Amino acid sequence: MYTFEPDKTVLDKTELTLISQYWNACNYLAAAMIYLQDNPLLDEPLKSEHIKNRLLGHWGASPALSFCYIHMNRLINKYQLDSLFIAGPGHGAPGVLAPVYLEGTYSEYYPEKSETINGLKKFLKEFSFPGFIGSHCTPELPGSIHEGGELGYSLSHAYGAAFDHPDLIVTCVVGDGEAETGPLATAWHSNKFLNPKTDGAVLPILNLNGYKIANPTILARISEEELLNLFKGYGYEPILVEGSEPQVMHQKMAHALEHAVNQIKHIQHQARVEDKNGRAKWPMIILKTPKGWTGPKTVDGHQVENTWRAHQVPLAGVKENPDHLAQLESWLKSYQPETLFNHDGKLIPELQAIAPKGQSRMSANPIANAGIVRQPLKLPDYAQFAAQVDAPGKLKISNTSVLGEYLNQIFMDNPNNFRLFGPDETASNKLDAVYQSTQKTWLADAKPEDSDGANLSVNGRVMEMLSEHTLEGWLEGYLLTGRHGLLHTYEAFAHVIDSMFNQHAKWLDICKHNVEWRAPISSLNILLSSVVWRQDHNGFSHQDPGFIDLVTNKSADVSRIYFPPDANCLLSVAEHCLQSTDYINLIISDKQKHLQYLTIEQAKQHCKKGIDVWDWASHSEALDTQSQSVDVILACCGDIPTMEALAAAAILKEYLPNLKLRFINIVDLYRIQSSDEHPHGLSTSEFEQLFTQDKPIIFNFHGYPWLIHKLAYKHNASARLHVRGYIEKGNINTPLELAIQNKIDRFNLVLDVLNRVPNLEGAADGLKNKMQQAISDHLNHAHTYGMDSDNISNWQWPDTNFEVEVNDK
Amino acid sequence: MYTFEPDKTVLDKTELTLISQYWNACNYLAAAMIYLQDNPLLDEPLKSEHIKNRLLGHWGASPALSFCYIHMNRLINKYQLDSLFIAGPGHGAPGVLAPVYLEGTYSEYYPEKSETINGLKKFLKEFSFPGFIGSHCTPELPGSIHEGGELGYSLSHAYGAAFDHPDLIVTCVVGDGEAETGPLATAWHSNKFLNPKTDGAVLPILNLNGYKIANPTILARISEEELLNLFKGYGYEPILVEGSEPQVMHQKMAHALEHAVNQIKHIQHQARVEDKNGRAKWPMIILKTPKGWTGPKTVDGHQVENTWRAHQVPLAGVKENPDHLAQLESWLKSYQPETLFNHDGKLIPELQAIAPKGQSRMSANPIANAGIVRQPLKLPDYAQFAAQVDAPGKLKISNTSVLGEYLNQIFMDNPNNFRLFGPDETASNKLDAVYQSTQKTWLADAKPEDSDGANLSVNGRVMEMLSEHTLEGWLEGYLLTGRHGLLHTYEAFAHVIDSMFNQHAKWLDICKHNVEWRAPISSLNILLSSVVWRQDHNGFSHQDPGFIDLVTNKSADVSRIYFPPDANCLLSVAEHCLQSTDYINLIISDKQKHLQYLTIEQAKQHCKKGIDVWDWASHSEALDTQSQSVDVILACCGDIPTMEALAAAAILKEYLPNLKLRFINIVDLYRIQSSDEHPHGLSTSEFEQLFTQDKPIIFNFHGYPWLIHKLAYKHNASARLHVRGYIEKGNINTPLELAIQNKIDRFNLVLDVLNRVPNLEGAADGLKNKMQQAISDHLNHAHTYGMDSDNISNWQWPDTNFEVEVNDK
User: Fold this and answer.
1) Angle A13-35/A117-126 helices, nearest 10 degrees?
2) Where is the Xylulose 5-phosphate/Fructose 6-phosphate phosphoketolase C-terminal domain (chains A, B) (predicted)?
3) CATH number at residue B620
4) With CB atoms 3.0 to 4.6 Å apart as the test, which of A65, A385, B183, B344 could cross-link to B469 if both were Cys?
5) Which of A731, A734, A729, A728 is nearest to A784 (CA)?
6) How many domains does chain B have?
7) What range does the domain containing B654 cover?
8) DSSP assignment, residue A520?
9) Closest chain B residue to A539 measured between Cα atoms?
10) Do A465 and B180 touch (CB under 8 A)?
11) Is a pLDDT exceeding 90 seen at residue A133?
């Protein structure tokens, strides 16, 4: 085994020269792309007109990024490694763009940025230029699966990419700014979930360049003892590489990286060949280098290199300031571009030779354009898990427990490219049927009592950690490298990952519209269970359906939202989502027991339509969508609102048998939008067929009611659209009490109908009184009897039995 | 100085007996409140009817919480400490409710839950009961400033409370589940921001009870060496207290806590008396105890104590299962309640005697009901910082830089109860005028080069860490303990704290409506700068105005949103927000230079109204709000949309001088809602006075356009309301290019007007062509010339000079 001796020399003179030169070429390009719009190789003296009109980009992080990149290249060649590169400080894109261009990949994807003097000029000019090359590791960058625009997720993405890719080493540079974020600070614990036998490895390189935009970083300003303790505490073997003199640092880094790669191989050998599997003390490198390394040391009397002043553009006003222009020229010339590139703009052959070739280049690793290697999920026929529904509203089961059985079969049929992610709630969310075929990944210590139902295993495929950030990051990394998955979480706490969700949606949107070479990847599937309406004793803090609103702000081309009303619809929706690509699919389905309505065949049809009239819950004369012979439309979206709406329909049927009520259920929320705005939307004529042109619509919604107005506004029905939903009224409540407080309950819905349909006076008054009495009865009862009062058989709205009523249809 | 010897005995026999008994009383109550609705002291044999109908609550975390609480009580008495208690595992509320009740505070706040047998019965029964006592440390709980419903924020709240409270020790129990979250994992680094001289102390107690809902915890399943290294790495002195035998554990904990408190006093002495101030190695305790400690060891053959099965209700189905009922009775009796309480239900006097009294009780610390101790912020007259506006649209300055001067004066006038929070961007957001009077808090290592402009100091009052979670947590803790502050951040990345924001909004809402004894606290003020419209090279990933949408989902009683169009309006809004209480004030104001429109007096009036017609930008015949003599309303909200709308108005004025355009600017977003829905909303008649009854409204908005439809839907204007805003179109763009892509720019606004106002045909066609030409000219220009093209003096819409046009009014 390769051992680590801090001062060992591992590069011979030729290797050292070549890697130094290659790094110079990277740094030259990184600086040049911030400044130059012409004279790309300084063939002529640098003049003001060669400088871009506005200087944008981040120099500070760039040199260390390319330093890591090219040192990994050396080992890729030496050991035939399969590696991906993740740049946590993705805003230091010049440090990644440079080696990606130099190894030829960039020109292969973008032939107009060829390896010629004109191609190079275009490449430099278009960096951070309107409409062109982004200044982060955006989706347009070959090899990138992580933009690094928003900080915090590099390490969880890296682990997600490594799961089930046993041959992969994910080289993940973490910036010391990013390291201060919460998501990154806990992602280090991902090493307790990585199986050395069946997963690949993550090689984290923490780059302590010491500064953020305007401040030092915390980790660069603690003692070396604290620093090493911290990473030992996280369970790693930290290897410190510190310095600034390039020749020395190349030796140190080559040595450290070689040690790390050998450690990884040793760990994997033990697990795979010697059959000693378990949690390993994986290596990680702490690379302590100056911010803006090799850039201007001082500018206008201020230290720049190794301070926050090097974060973005170290020399400002170059176009106007001749001193700065001269300093820039001498800085750029310090890399001796004339020795690195031929006159035609191409890297000299000796340097080209040291980069990996073909798919061994991290920028050309097919895993980073995962759609081309992705295997579709093998999906069993979900009908075999269907709830047996003889009549609507009779059977009461947990919808998610049915989904659990389906997922269990998916685990059996897809042993190494599907995972389930959740923060400690797979059992609580009633998906525990999956434990028939798999377990929870766990490589931290085991205890004897684990054998009694803890379902832990080094080989588990259910990922549970109490960090929504880490789970979401793992899942994104897993999907972005060609696999499949589902994340389930509390509805209210989906907001924890709002920002990550936004970033992934934006990534997909860009890929879909701007990056034609990116093949589609599996959709990001999020199941919200433990919903707003069933928080019981958890109360107000756990009641928040606003994640739905967030999703509706993202591009219509990537976002989908489903509200299956029962188990069979949930199965149909799940199948649809799991086989789709390039979407974000949000599914909202409560974990508690609910009434079932549709047979599997009906469910399939209903979900296909996404919105439909339920004839058995409507008045027979209100069914014809070509006719306007309707008194009122009762629409609903969401499992609990649907149950309440059906109960209201049953009450109305009993008391006002002549009321022409049309009952509409919505599975696919975007159906209510205009077809101008969303591909699933309804045209005006479709909308009016369903909702008539002028009749009142009572809409019972799972989420915030105003969202429906927002989505439907182009249909110009707002004056007759009366939406009920969660209006931030709650505490410790029984389910029905909470429904009543927010007026999505059966009694208030009846009142809504009575208040909206004209000419009902006689019949309406008595029923209104009954409804008000029922509401006050229930509230009194709940406060006397307690949490279970909804389920007490002897408490009931006296003249209504919802189940019987609906079954009678 | 007190030294730590692991096996030292510190409690004498009497003390040990009393503290053991007190803890028994806590545990008895904690268990009883989950189970009993009657027979509160087991005066008669336990029967099924004494058991609640539904068993809800979290037993698992409770015993260790009260264990920490009462051991802290001992030291409060011994050393006259001033302490707050924060329960990270706030769902273990029984472990906090119990000592709060036993020390009398609960009954003082809720006299119906008196210290009598009937009061006790009510207290137990109402726990987790519909409409009554929450099962977390909700706002209704005296002494709580942290609900602990959503996990992750206990430690940042604790530090926020400790800042500028030099005598306070915040006892903060962190659960090992919560410790897995990102926000908690990075909050440990808060110790680099705590000044031993002028701040109080935080004493973190990490309770490793080993389990979450259904899983072991990571930190309980790593080696002791890793565990201690981790906390040494975080910069603490970890003290491990491990075991399960209560008598031994009382000794160990008493000793450890005494050591910790003495260490704190020693550190503070060094800083305050010996004048050796700097970062300290603060103590923290790792308390390793069984989950569900002292509860049932096994149930139905499964181990319960010290496993995840103890998380919530360890014995289920007690009402129906006689064996479980018997086991419950014997468990409850194991605490010997008859020896702890008198027959009348009151704790025996010997035990009462050992609790702190009056305001020394952590539950009665006035700091935890901070409104009663809060001093209003001393606010200087903002007029002295006003931008000198001679005419609208002439002066161009950064609005936030003007705010910076005002904040600087606030720092001078309020030396110890105001702080500014931001993730490394105070300078970038142009608020750096504050460095005239203060600096950034920094207790990590210093370097010589810091003296050149880094603005770091142990005494700084500007809090910068690259963790929005930590900043928001600090600020919340700071406000909840009676002080004032402002958080500023990137608009897109405000989503990082969506969930924290939700929780704080819910806390305020509950306090306002349900907890009359809580006095108002300072509002949470959030300034979003670096807005969606000015991301330039940061591109698509940094473009997201959705935080505004999130805020609009919270209660109208607590949420406020302001869009000051210029510097003077920003000053007025800032003053208003900084003196308000119990709101969340969201202010959106870009950091770049912008045109100025209003004098300080005009700004004051405009902000007071929140929405107004700008007569100088309107057609003179369209001003009379009693008349409907208007062709079109051009409304705008947000600094950049306002500038574009004004430019559009100028173009229209030049080309269609007879067009009766009414120009409306909105500062207070909620003005456009209905007065039925928000206290700032407009009545129908007010809305129609401003917006007429039937004329087209072109609304140029900063955020997502459909939000305006959502807010305004009750005004039934959606058919004539045409909203422009951000529609997720962007990349690397010049500001004007981005505006054009999303159609909020001057040219598209003119087109919108031309397309909406009837009977313009002749004049309109030529102008339409000009606008389309201008759009295409600009896009071409940007892609040729680059990022700076918006500012090039020789590129301009040929016949329009916005400044002149507006000035000419």
Assistant:
1) 60
2) 591-797
3) 3.40.50.920
4) B183
5) A734
6) 3
7) 611-808
8) P
9) B134
10) yes
11) yes
Select from B372, B401, B416 the last residue of a domain: B372
DSSP 8-class letter at B231: H
Q: Report pTM.
A: 0.97
Q: Is residue A1 part of a domain?
A: no
Do B197 and B310 fall into the same domain? Answer: yes
Model confidence at A794: pLDDT above 70: no
Q: Domain for residue A766, yes or no?
A: yes
Rounded Cα distance between A601 and B523, Å, is 54
Share of chain B above pLDDT 70, in %: 97
Nearest-Cα distance to chain A for B457, in Å, is 12
* Residue A349 and residue A474 in one domain: no
What pLDDT was estimated at residue B797?
A: 46
Could you tell me if B463 and B332 lie in one domain? no
Q: How far is residue A439's CA from residue A466's CA, in Å, rounded to a whole number? A: 17
Res. B763 pLDDT band, cuts 50 70 90 = confident
Digit-coded pLDDT (tens) for B180-192: 999 999 999 999 9
Residues of chain B positioned with their CB less than 8 A from the CB of A792: 53
Percent of residues in chain A assigned helix, strand, coil, to nearest 5: 45, 15, 40
Amino acid at A420: L
State whether B620 and B576 are in the same domain: no
| Domain termination site, one of B593, B619, B636 | B593
Question: Within a domain: residue A50?
Answer: yes
Q: pLDDT of A664-692, one tens digit each?
A: 999 999 999 999 999 999 999 999 999 99
pLDDT of residue B628: 72
- The answer to whether A181 contacts B181, with C-beta atoms less than 8 Å apart, is no
Together in a domain, A501 and A643: no
B425 touches chain A (CB under 8 A): yes
- Identify the three-state secondary structure at position B586: strand
Residue of A nearest to B514 (CA): A731
Mutate to test the interface with B, among A496, A693, A737 (most CBs of B within 10 A): A496
Mean pLDDT over A707-719 rounds to 93
Residue to test with chain B: of A551, A706, A723, most B Cβ within 10 A: A706
The per-residue pLDDT for range A227-282, each reduced to its tens digit, is 999 999 999 999 999 999 999 999 999 999 999 999 999 999 999 999 999 999 99
**Distance in Å, alpha carbon of A539 to nearest chain B alpha carbon:** 7
Res B805 pLDDT > 50: no
At residue A503, the pLDDT reads: 97
Chain B residue with minimal CA distance to A235? B226
Q: What is the pLDDT of residue B801?
A: 45
CA-based nearest residue to A742, from A721, A752, A757, A728: A728
Same domain, A386 and A360: no
* Contact between B706 and A719 using a beta-carbon 8 Å cutoff: no
Please name the helix (run of DSSP H) or strand (run of DSSP E) that holds residue A783, with its range, or none.
helix A761-785
Find chain A residues with C-beta within 8 A of B136's C-beta: 538-539, 541
How far apart are the C-alpha atoms of B299 and A279, rounded to whole Å?
Answer: 32
Answer yes or no: do A650 and A537 share one domain. Answer: no
Q: Which residues of A touch B707 (CB under 8 A)?
A: 710
3-state secondary structure B176-242: CCHHHCHHHHHHHHHHHHCCCCCCCEEEEEEEECCECCCCECCHHHCCHHHHHHHHHHCCCEEEEEE
Q: pLDDT value at position B808?
A: 30
Interface membership of B319 toward A (CB under 8 Å)? no
How far away is chain A from the Cα of B249, in angstroms, using its nearest Cα?
Answer: 22
Each residue of B40-71: pLDDT tens digit? 999 999 999 999 999 999 999 999 999 999 99
Yes or no, beta carbons of B786 and A130 under 8 Å apart: yes
φ, ψ for residue A703, nearest 5 deg: -100, -155
Any A CB within 8 A of B13 CB: no
B47 in reach of chain A (CB within 8 A): no
- Chain B residues 218-257 within an 8 A CB cutoff of chain A: 218, 221-223, 225-235
